[in-house]
Every structure is written in C-alpha cells, then in structure tokens.
Fold each of these.
Amino acid sequence: MNNHIEKTLVIYKPHALQRAIVGEILTRFERVGLKISGLKMLTPTDEQFHHHYETIGTVISRHGETVFKNTVAMMKDGPVIALVLEGVKAVEIVRKMVGSTEPKSANPGTIRGDYAHMNYGFSDDNQYGLHNIVHASGNIEEANQEIALWFTPEEVFDYESVHDLSSQKIVKK
C-alpha cells in the first residue's frame, strides 16, 4: 500500500446522533475524497471505553480519574457510530477537519467549530464529558490501535473508489 494512504478512526459521540447531524458530517469527509472503509453503530462496553480512553488515549494518566469517568458517562448516553476513513494522510486531514478538541477553541469551518460550543470549564463544572461531536485518532499509531479495538479485520473493507482510480491514472501519466 502507498505509504501516504492511511486509515483513521472517527467515533460519532451520542450527542451527534441525538442531534441528527451524522449525515452532514459524513458528507464533509466524503467531499474531500476520504473513503469509508468501515462503518457501524454500537453500544460499547466498559472494557472498550477503558481500552480506548486509557490504554490507548491515557486519559486517566493525563487528566485524572474524574475526567475519565465523566467522559465515559457521557459516551454512554446512547449508541455511537464508529467509522474507518481511508485516504492520503487521512489522520492529518481528519484532525484538521474536526478541529480543536475544545469546541470553543475550534475554528469556524471545522466540525467542532460549526456544531459545538462547549468548553472545558463548563464540562468540569457540570461534571460531564466534553460535548465535542466526534473523536478522531490523533496520530497513525493511535489510529491503528483504535481501528483494531473497534473493528475486526473482516469489518474493514478494501475497494476502489473514483478517487483511487484518479490517483492511479495520474501516476501512470
């Protein structure tokens, strides 16, 4: 596989589903040419959340047990949608599109900047997880670990899209 082509994980948090903005956000990813390699709705287990947020994300280590518990409680407000996106430098592109983790600091035009406004202070004062619409892998190593946690190999598909075909034609010229 081309070393510029990457896969990354996006998780739509429960409030994205509750607000009915999943399709709008997915359209943004597709419009830049990212390919959907995996997609499913699920209710994660406590073990999945712990592995995702602490084993991989080190939330407890970095921010403490309270932030971890508040985040998991918020993530249990409903089902989530896990999504594997693939494309040229997908991790970096998705992070740029998603915007800053703290929605009030996210630039307009980013997903968090356009669909959320919460800040860390409000979240902490109310002992609730940060409503920032989606999770996006922070780097390629994290993406690989997260995809392996949320998807079996059979649930991640490999197929050609028009973007793949365009890239092949450009390379051949």
Note: The domain at 5-172 is CATH 3.30.70.141 (Alpha-Beta Plaits).
Amino acid sequence: MVDRPKQAQRVFLLVVDDSEEMRIALRYACRRAKSTGGRIALLDVTEPADDQHWVAVGDLMRQERRADAERRLQDLSAIVQEMTGTTPVLYVREGSLRDELLKLLDEEPSVSILVLGAGTGPAGPGPLVSALAGKMSGRLRVPLMIVPGSLSAEDIEIFA
C-alpha cells in the first residue's frame, strides 16, 4: 500500500455580522465542515473611529468595539463547537471590511473557502457579496461560496 500525504484540512472562512443571512451561512458552513472534516474560521472586522478629536475617546470607542467583536465571536464559537465538535479559528481586525478580508486571505494560506450569506431583502445580497462576486472576484485566491439567506434548516440538511 502506498502512503499518501495527508491532505490539508479545509478551512471555511465566514465574515461575522449580526445578520440573519450570516447565521444561515454559518449553519451551512458548519454542516459542510463537519461532513468533510474541515474547520470553521470566523472574521469580525471593526471599523476605525471616524474622527478622533480626543484620543482618549477614540481609544475607548476602539476598546468597546473590540470587546463587542470578541463577545460576538465567543457566542458564535459556542455554536460552531456544538455543530462541528471543533473550535473555530477566530480573527478580529480593525479597518475596512473588504481590505481586511483580502489581507487575511493573502496572509492565511490555510483558508480554502470564503463563505458569505446573501441578503434576501430589496437592497440585494449585500455590499460585500456584490463586490466580491462582481468587480473584486479576480482578487480572491479561494472559491467564494454564497449561501442564499432564504435557506431553511431543512434545506441546509439536504444541500450541505
């Protein structure tokens, strides 16, 4: 029998926000990760303070946004652990969402799939989905998986 090199673990990266479509995409990615022996990574990007007339106020705002991001990631981490049995990789960045996402993808060769949830409202799928599926698609080094925000739990069981 020939020994084959161990295949790298597939890492599904999700961009975290408070939307319902993100939670649907997370559920879908967790099912895919569990069925393929993969792992989940979560990215939360906080926007920098707009105008920093007072440095102390800007620092306090930055600390509060970071604490909110860490709480959100811990809550989602518990969901990932329950669904997959593994601990996700957590990333917190500050800056422009698109810029920080692209930087992370360039810096982390372990990420193999970017998973985004598409909004179902009249505003469309969302600015990040629109940008990455459109003009910026050539900048991605990994496949982009767009999960419709209208999928039900039953649909996810069937499709994932």
Note: The radius of gyration is 17 Å.
